């Protein structure tokens, strides 16, 4: 990759622009589908634990493929990786738009994921290589502004499309844009790279796939099958064993597929831990809120999208501001303030009722997103800043892999909490309701009672899931207290004879 991007005073803005547009479309597609999940559940007749696979299946493929991106970035040009990624994404989008049964829709989503898995690490690596440490916060802030525009546009656009058209139009809308970007990339990306004789260790690839895939599948299946299912604890156990074997095998290679030596840099290790925990908490709002507002409150998809719009806009606007604040003050103070806001608002979300006003939901969600905007980019950038240049592909691949794993774990955990607590509350409410009846209730009364019990039980289950998410966010807040401002290291890990040498980037 370093041979692919020339190190000049002027960053390759043309390449960065094309990569950003591709990543924007992939990210937009992800946010488009969140509002559509209730509609997909109704039309394809699947439950919450099944439809979540459109999100967790996406993560599963990402978790399997992202560990290979460090190898791919080092071996191939930006152009080749981008074209393959956009082709796979375009094919998945076409298949998703033609799907009339859930398995085909899921297959399309997973093909989309195989493309988007390559785009984000590729773009992150180009950004790290192109900008010096002292300008990286501002550059990442602009990068965040463009990508945060996707969740700002996504829910509202999705709501409007679903209200006026079929949910498949979400895929039909993306298809021509993805194909145009693919064609533009084919003609405009012209970077070159020296041929690198580097081979992929297939046993490592298999172990990585079983390891990360097993963890993702196991946690994602927990919501539907229960934690006591052999499918759940069996795949998690297999994943842990394969992952340990994978790590031990990578430590023996001079040029590993995914270099775990990045965790020898304390700020990178800490930032990875914080972003993993924050990811787990963040999915509570993305997953639970659409179910609450549409299934329980009967709010239209359009209004559900508009509810999330101010929060997404705040996140987008704050991204470049946060980037400049990061360059000036570092990540610690931003993370502490942001996570404090996130913790408080998440616990407020654990107090939802069937009468909670629309305005209250908008304000609470917007403030929560304001808090989140101060956390993710500053924390991850601070960690990456400590890595030597040669570890950038491995650092970005590791971060993206762990984000997918933690997202799947968070989704599975919160869906499981919601489902199990809903069942528990339903039994308790039904028991109390039967006591209130004088004599034997008729069929109409029983039907009405079941509907009311179901709604109240799901509400309590959602509140319990938000409560758990609040405690998860507290863990991230505690970890953020230990953040220190990172400076770039050029030390050769494992070579103790060589002293640490500061680079010009670090001195700047």
UniProtKB/TrEMBL annotation:
UniProt keywords, alphabetically: Cell membrane, Membrane, Transmembrane, Transmembrane helix, Transport
Listed transmembrane segments: 12-33, 53-74, 81-105, 111-131, 138-157, 169-188, 200-219, 231-248, 268-292, 304-321, 333-350, 362-380, 401-419, 465-483
Start and end residues of each Major facilitator superfamily (MFS) profile domain: 15-488
Membrane topology: Multi-pass membrane protein
Predominant localisation class: membrane
Location in or out of the cell: Cell membrane
Family matches, as InterPro entries: EmrB-like (IPR004638), MFS (IPR011701), MFS_dom (IPR020846), MFS_trans_sf (IPR036259)
Pfam families: MFS_1
Keyword Nuclease: no
PANTHER family in the cross-refs: MAJOR FACILITATOR SUPERFAMILY MULTIDRUG TRANSPORTER MFSC (PTHR42718:SF9)
Family matches, as NCBIfam families: efflux_EmrB (TIGR00711)
Family as reported in the entry's similarity comment: Belongs to the major facilitator superfamily. EmrB family.
Name used for this protein in its record: EmrB/QacA subfamily drug resistance transporter
Source organism per UniProt: Anoxybacillus andreesenii
